[in-house]
Fold this protein.
Amino acid sequence: MKKITLTVFMFLFVFANVVAQQEKGIIGKDNWLNNWTDFQSNGQDDHVEPTQILTGNITEDKRLVKRHVYLLVGSIFVTNNAVLTIEPGTVIIGDYASKASLTIAKGASIVASGLETDPIIFTSNRRVKKSGDWGGVIILGDAATNKFGNGSVASFYTRLDPANYAHTNFGGENPNSNSGLLKYVRIEYAGSRVKSGLNFNGLMLAGVGRETVLENVMVSNSGGNSVEIWGGNVVLNKFVSYKSTQTDYKFNYGVQGELINSLAVRSPYVSSSSGAKSLEVVAYSERQEVDFSKPSTVVKAQNITVLNSSKDLREDIRMGLVKEGVYVGEHASLDMNKSVISGFNPAVIFENKIQINQESLDKIKFTNMYFNNCNGNIFVENNANNEDLENWYGNHAFFNVYSKGHDAETFIEINNLRRPDYRLRINKIIASNDSDSN
């Protein structure tokens, strides 16, 4: 009886341990990246000619259908509480010459509901596509921010018609506001340069409320940030950022956000020199912009995988091509759980204005993490001594794991770009709790 009891106990222990490991990083019984994503895009896709042109403002309900290919020309605003509906499989191409963009103004909405086998695609109209070919997609809502008054995204547009300035405003007091739905959508080659130091983002959400559905969205080859969120209350589920020139996911201006079961794959060979990272959580860009009596940025990130796909990590670090995976700014809160940070320099950096005390550590949490193949783990900006942080987050109570595994040993299948699988390869991982940096 004792032998049977011991055998059952050991089986349950091993099973529970494997399940616990499998929960780290992106998860799913099946590989949810299949069918609708595209990791093979090299800028020379089959060129499609538009059959319809969209320009000016959309002021009443409009439906885009799969049988047409739509060309966006200039800065297009959906206004007047109109709903823009896009059928599964529809292709919308952004004009390079006019740096086209699509903005869903506050009060209007977009319903872009693709299918796993028939996603909606926003892409460039150039025959040889490059990051930053066109503007991107902006959705504005009336949820709160921590700015004084409400905000505007007017600075992202060049040659903006004065009549459209009102349509660039966002923010309000409705956390439940509904700006529509994005599901099974790809946004490719967006992020055009506006001026020095400023690019469009692939997808920008400003003041967007929690009833907006945002899931299964891929932003690839963006010249700006892949996804940037200013204020609002948002839940991003099953997002993918691929080969972004700048940051993959940036949360700012008092957003109350969740990033769930999502992926970022960086390439050091396309990153800008501006310090691009996978996840950036900050409270403001300029202190004078924000009202500190309002709620600051709070982000929960669960089952996230952020990966730097470097062929020679040590050399790329030496060349300055690889930055930190996660950056946390003063007054911002991040609760990161069951996630994977692999191949960065280092894994995490705190802004140097953050005081390392109990109050700060209670606001910045890393639990059940898998830190892999990083040149150091958690540091304060411009400070080479991370002993206090290593001692804190390395405590066994946080269940963080540290490893030096190669990508092919860490993830199920990353070399097959047609059907990659970035879930952890559990049976090949040899992990330890050795948190020493390189």
